[in-house]
Amino acid sequence: MKRIILLSLFFVFAFATIATAQTKVSGIVLDKSNQPIPFANVVFKGSNTGIVSNEDGRFYLESPNTYTALIVTSAGFSDKEVPLEKAVNYNFKIVLGEAEALNEVVIYTGKTSKKNNPALDILRKIWARKRKNGLYQFNQYQMQKYEKVEFDMNTIDSAFMKNKLFKGMEFIFNHVDTSDVTGKTYLPIFINESVYDVYGDNKLKKVKENITGNKMSGFNGNQQILSFVKDLYSDYNIYDNHLKFFDKSFTSPLSRTGIDVYNYVLKDSAFVDKKWCYNIVFYPRRKNELTFKGDFWVNDTTFAIKKINMGVTKSANINWVKDIYIEQEFEVENDSVFLLTRDYMMSDFALNKKEKSKGVYGKRTTLYRNHKFNIQKPEKFYKEEVNFIDNAVYDRPPEFWEENRFEKLNKDEQGIYKMLDTLQTVKRFKQLYNLVSILGSGYVEFKNFDYGPIFSTFGYNEVEGIRLRVGGRTYFGPNDPWRIQAYTAYGFDDNKFKYGVSGKWMVDKKNRVIISGGNRRDIEQIGASLTTTNDVLGRSFASSALFTTGSNGKLTNINLSNISVEMEAKKNFIVQAGLSYRTLESASKTFSLDYYTTLPSASNPMGVVKSDVKQSEANIQFEYMPNRKTIGYGVERDLVDSPFSHFFVNFSYGLKGVFDSDFAYEKIQVFYKQPIIIGPLGRSNIILETGKTFGTIPLGLMSVIPGNQTYFTIENTFSNLNFYEFVTDQYTTLQWNHDFGGRLFARVPFMRKLNWREFVGVRAVHGTISDANRAINASGLPYNAPEKVYYEYHAGIGNIFKVFRIDFSWRGNYLDMPDAHKFAVKGSFGFYF
């Protein structure tokens, strides 16, 4: 969601002086019968800059250099040289004639054979040598890395420039590059530069990148945009079987499974930088799969890639992205070592894939130089810093960039910095930027204070009726060392005010030692999740759902206070200890938390019943999230949206007698989530939760198996269970959810164009209750535990209209329980690539 909202920022704010490229060409490649030729190679003459036409024969090619001709080639057709009479050329129609007989190589067209195909023989040799090429040949390596990310708005016409949206900002269009042929304009709107020192150890399997400089046009310090850019452009290795872009797993043309996914054609052989190389063209066997089309040059002795160009197929099941183009170049070191020196990636983001749709080009250029090898570093050198803090990195003087840029910025790229710095002073721009920022963060920004989150303003439940909430937080910048948050809410049926306030203070920035505390008095649906924390301002969606599948008055008045201290002992390993005090009592006349303090006996048949719970608790918890990536170094950080494992353990101790606390107990909870990418088959998530309470406790402190009585999908809940349908003091749940990413529907012809995506999953739980806990239950709620494993399974369809997902869930057993939901339909909204 964050990525799409921030991407919309680039769609709306097209601000710059002139398009970056000096030579631009677009057009279509046809045969003599005017039929499109897909996957034709289009290259600037005398260069290595080229692209492969899409399924419709269309292409777009640009370069910062000046060229006067194109070379167009395709298997089965004669090569053609096309002169370029000017720098910007649109709507070229390039017609190729049939080729004469070729002697050097064998040519295949259409579906290529998996037998007796020389291209596949070469591909198998690439597989055999891929772990012996490049940096893998050395025990250790060092190099410098320069990365430049740009965004250019494309397909802008005069009507767009006259839009009222730009009132007061018309000056940005004074130097627009406009084609006389099509009226299309190209506007650079953003640039970010970074310089790194990179170290690697193949024996230790460790890599470390030290950032030495970062510069961002117009938005310095905006962590959301930095996070967005890192989300879009994750690192990849072209030799890997699968390449991850935009949270999708694409099959690499060099994959060991590529034979089943791609057609390969051995097209040519020639010297490239004094190395004899083979040229192989590849294109997908089927539509709608996450694949590429393109070509690569591979050396005839080392079978290392010299150069590769590839673009995503137009039919690929991916949203908001019209095109992806990748180009990598390798240089020869010591006569036999091929090292990556240039990596270029261009993405065309658009609301739809129509040829004339407006969009944004996102371009990343990564350059490498000054390689050094076999200089060993101690293992502790590769230990990641818990909280890297160096403000100077983001404030380097111009002299630093003049010295450390691997290639100079052209005049237009330099203009991006000047233009956006100017726009920061324009009131209209600030208003538009703030609007998009509100959608992205959920907060309305004021000086040193944010109001929100706005999405929690309105709610409803049976006890409070309509609920209105207002709140906010302190905000001096993204790297604040302390933050205070507070809210108040009012229910129109119970006529009561509620509130919550919390604060965090990072007392040690290097090790991220954070002290936090707060108090909340509110109405809550406890038991909405199994693995719980003492987050003062936390509130489940189940407490305020506007629409539910059935009546629910099982709500609780909660008064929670806590104080805690946490420390990131090592990168992504957090230890926290805390104390809390809470009181719990029913918020509804139809629901009870009653328990016996004295059990019924012959002398006292009624026993002694108490209706509220007072509980002091101490806890210590451990959280480990390997491969988690974060942005910023303040008390609150943003996450880079990439999958990572999550392991959580919590030990709690009930402190009876402390502040009149009622119960003594020990509780352990374990949570483990593991994402698994299964190449072209999509991604699975496996979630395990288990816990046990030792001691006697009432309903308010039991582990309630989380049901879901809303119409929306809620993670880690059971769609076919009601609230409090199962209650336990010992439990184990296991979930498996899998996203096929459209792989199955792509094989069904009449469903292929819908680009729907398939989801399946199973949830199961086993739990028990001790006799002592059953004995003190005076709530009137029957204790049912899933002593025989309860399970449910679901299947869903996602990417409906690109924003909607619907899940169908079936109850596997316990079908005879009162008010049992045998079948449920849940939905959810979201923006996904």
TrEMBL record:
Entry-linked Pfam families: CarbopepD_reg_2, DUF5686
Key words, A-Z: Signal
InterPro entries on file: CarboxyPept-like_regulatory (IPR008969), DUF5686 (IPR043741)
Organism superkingdom: Bacteria
Signal peptide region: 1-21
UniProt name for this protein: DUF5686 family protein
